[in-house]
Amino acid sequence: MTIQRFDAGPRMAEMTVHNGVAYLAGQIAEDASQDITGQTRQVLGAIDALLERAGSHKTKVLRAQIFLADLADFAAMNAVWEGWVVPGQTPARATVQAALAKPEWKIEIVITAAV
């Protein structure tokens, strides 16, 4: 049984890969001063980069869990999301409102993808 850990630190890894599945940690925006549109773009860019490192792609995303600090941002987040996903290749998805670890974060996304 092989488990690959990417960017593992004392608390967590950014991604683990096991048995052909990539499990991404919650991804947040690097620049939290941006609005929901900017933060969502940043998060999806980080997801793209991690998936590429694992030898995967957004078309192989199995499940997305989206955490929004404010559900008022749902429509704006969806506008960015719908521009990112590939039609016909959309994953199972859940979106909930949640208190995120830092008040300036507007979105966090957790991804599970096939490799």
From TrEMBL:
Record's protein name: RidA family protein
Locate the coiled-coil region(s) and give their ranges: none
Q: Which domain of life is it from?
A: Bacteria
Family as reported in the entry's similarity comment: Belongs to the RutC family.
Q: Which organism is it from?
A: Ideonella lacteola
